[in-house]
Design goal:
Two copies of one chain form a homodimer. Chain A has about 350 residues and is α+β, with helices and mostly antiparallel strands. Chain A has two domains: about 160 residues, HIT-like (HIT family, subunit A); about 160 residues, HIT-like (HIT family, subunit A, 2-Layer Sandwich). Helix content of chain A is about 25%, strand content about 20%. Chain A is built from seven helices and 15 strands. In chain A, the strands form two sheets. Chain A has a ten-stranded antiparallel beta sheet with strand order 3-4-7-9-8-13-14-12-11-10, sandwiched between helices. In chain A, helix 1 crosses helix 4. The termini of chain A are far apart. At the A-B interface, strand 1, strand 2, strand 8, strand 9 and helix 2 of A face strand 1, strand 2, strand 8, strand 9 and helix 2 of B.
């Protein structure tokens, strides 16, 4: 069983993953090779993954078989999970340290049957299906009272940490709220106590008055560069209407989120020459369905050549690209209709 | 002038560096090339760097010339600084956002005249000189009341963010205390309020009673794997005697720090096949010379193949190597005396 351990000074929980334990020798010459070989996520190989927990088979007329083919999106438990799904937390001390069982769920959302596809180049309807799969899994896992937070993210490309090429995103359900989430919640709560307004709603209003960091919008979503981004081209997709939890989205919003996401990914794919990227859903912890002070959003960070080196060393962020410049570039970059349709 | 901007939600300050501004096109095909070409840090090229702020010329009999050759360690301002040294902070609002001038110092500690050397393979005395240079620069910059924190770190190897091959470390003096530092201070302060003991001193004692994460020690320093490390082989060098500020080291401690550091670097260099790494000095902010609750230390993180990908995406750390295993490996790895002497 993996272990969750808490840093005694800063209070950060870390998974010490014994399942995937790496011995020192594993680090020598262990470069990840993404290309070629057998892919467990491809259609026809459904039995090579753990049994699916969700799949959409829209064209099977309801006759699709579990773990059979014909799916458009398929969700399976990770074969090498960072956390174990069985058992209890068993919180305990180790001297002055705190630890508990590494209990949780780790799932893979296989975004398309097409091994060579990119999320950016899928039709909007398919992207929407991926987002529905995120939502459906959150709604299901929320019923398990052992989980406090459900984290959804996507690592695209080796430089962003992907270890398999087939397009996929990941879900991790945790018995704790991760530090980066609780910091955001705490900051937003402090602001709300002072102003009785959601800080994200205030940011939205201000950024629309003087749209120098504005990238794009539709009826339901705004795409922005943050005021103090850590990385070049860091971008935020945020719903215009206040809502603390992603899973409360309306169908209308879901279509518009898929569309905003596709636009952003396409602009980066073409304008920034197919960068690796990370995408993280920031949503409310599960125990409360609505928070006045928190506002869910998606954080998008392309991994641009070596610019991410500095803060590794210093623990401090230096961003060489002002967000006003990256926003201008993405705002003005036209993705031609031909490209959108052909791909 | 670069700008310091504060994230309105989590309160993290970020440098938006206009000096080194990257336009979108700079990210295309801009792979850093470390090898070959002209090196401004090599002896004979002293005029190609900004004028030195410190240099040790032990063999010149006091006759060494500023910006001349004959130095063993040389400190120069960064030619492309992330922060500007002139002017005032000029704190101001931009609507609901907070910003100030990116005031600060950014210096390069050139660790040796030998372009092809490695810190790990330098004689202990030379490593000690590098540490003295860190100290001397901190003591000097502390007099500038505009600075709140002096950060010292080293990025070794391209994967760790180094952009120049010649061995060097970096210093950044900041008008704010970085978030990762204030979190550590705050956690240690909370513990002190509760227990009236330094949390780091308590950790030291506990780790020596059951030394499963122990790596090595000498009279003054302990080398340990942390209980909840974020990365494989993350390691901490910590003084045995309570002291909050690095610059208060005795000469005796300085020699032993150089020796502990060399041992650790050599073990990793040989045992882990010359990994890229980051090394960060965690020391007290400058305004107070002694804190009962804080204990300075050095954090060492080798960058092992692609294992650092996950947390980029998730904002959450999964460490595949239990610290007890990495500590055992480093503890038991013998660096032969021959290697130590020859290199």
């Amino acid at each position: 069983m993996p272990e969750l351990r808490k840093d005694p000074v800063v209070g950060r929980w870390v998974i010490i993953s014994t399942n995937r334990a790496k011995r020192p020798s594993d680090f020598l010459h262990s470069k990840v090779e993404l290309k070629g070989g057998f892919c467990p996520f491809c259609p026809g190989n459904e039995t090579k993954t753990p049994s699916e927990v969700l799949a959409y088979r829209p064209n099977s007329g309801g006759g699709g078989q579990k773990n059979g083919s014909g799916w458009t999106v398929r969700v399976v438990p990770n074969k090498f999970p960072a956390l174990g799904i069985e058992g209890t937390l068993n919180r305990q001390a180790e001297g002055m340290f705190d630890k508990m069982n590494g209990l949780g769920a780790h799932e893979i959302i296989i975004e398309t049957p097409d091994h060579d596809a990119h999320l950016a180049l899928l039709p909007v309807e398919n992207i929407e299906s991926v987002l529905w799969a995120w939502r459906d899994r959150i709604v299901d896992l929320k019923q398990d009272r052992r989980f406090k937070y459900i984290m959804i993210f996507k690592n695209h490309g080796e430089a962003a940490g992907a270890t398999l090429e087939h397009p996929h995103s990941q879900l991790i359900a945790l018995p704790i709220v991760p530090k980066h989430v609780s910091e955001e919640l705490e900051g937003a709560r402090r602001y709300f106590i002072m102003k009785e307004r959601c800080i994200f709603c205030d940011i939205l209003r201000q950024e629309m008055e003087n749209p120098i960091r504005f990238i794009s919008e539709n009826d339901d979503f705004l795409v922005l560069a943050p005021f103090a981004p850590r990385f070049p081209f860091e971008t935020c997709i945020i719903p215009k209407r206040h809502e603390s939890a992603f899973e409360n989205l309306s169908s209308h919003q879901m279509i518009n989120l898929a569309s905003a996401l596709k636009q952003l990914l396409l602009k980066c794919e073409i304008g920034l020459d197919s960068p690796a990227y990370n995408l993280v859903l920031h949503t409310s912890p599960v125990e409360e369905s609505f928070r006045e002070y928190y506002h869910w959003h998606i954080e998008f960070i392309p991994k641009l050549t070596n610019t991410a080196g500095f803060e590794w060393g210093s623990g401090f962020y230096i961003n060489p690209t002002p967000p006003e410049e990256s926003a201008k570039f993405l705002r003005e970059f036209e993705v031609s209709r031909t490209i959108q349709r052909i791909k």
